[in-house]
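pls ignore typos typing on phone
zinc ion + seq
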Amino acid sequence: MTAFATPPISPLRISFDPATATIEPTGPILTRRMSDLEGLFADQTEWRRSASGDDPVVYTVTSSPVPELDRELPQSITTILPGDCGGEFHMTKGHQHPDPQGEIYLGLTGVGGLLLFDGERTEWIDMAPGVIGYIPPHWAHRSVNVGDEPYRFLAVYPGRAGHDYQWVLDHGMGARALRSPNGYELAPYESA
Ligand code: M6P
Ligand code: ZN
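k done
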C-alpha cells in the first residue's frame, strides 16, 4: 500500500471515560462469540457444547475511527468477559502481525494476562489497570481474562501491521491459562 493512497484523516479528539472504559466517537465494533473461536480452546468437546448452545459473547473490540492504513496509528478497546471453556480462561483469538511491527496494550479494568509467543519462547505479562504491556515485532499475542470481572485494555498499533490468525492455529501460543485454586496457572500448550 502506498502512503496516502487514501486521503489522510484529520486530527481527532477522542473522549475516554475511565469509569466505563468507553471512547467517543467510535469506529468499527466487533463481537466475538464462542463459535468464532473454533480450534483455539484445548477442550474441543466443551467448546462445541458451548458454541452450539448459548454461544456466549467472549469479547468485544471497539475501535476508534482511525483506519487500519499505512502510517496511521489505530487504537481499540477490547473487553474480555469473565469465564472459561473447560477450565481455560476466556481469551482473544490471538494473532501475529504479517507486517512485523510492535504494539502496546494498557490495562484499564479487571485483571488479565498478555501471552506472547515467538515460535520458541513464551512470555506472560500480568495485566491490571495502569500496566503497559509491550509486544515486540515477531511475537504473536493473545489476551486472557483471569479474573471475575470484565478485563479491558487499550491497544495502540501501526495501521499496516495486520492480523494473521492462521499463524496461531498452526503454531499455538506456547501456553494455556487454566483456572486453578489460586486463580490461574499456565499449562504447556497442547493443540486443540
Ligand atoms: C487488541 C488489538 C486488536 C485485536 C484485538 C483482539 O485490541 O490487538 O488489533 O484485534 O486486541 O485480538 P484478536 O484480533 O487476536 O482477536
Ligand atoms: Zn496485534
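Helices lie at 44-51, 166-171. Residues 61 and 78 are 4 Å apart (CA to CA). more later
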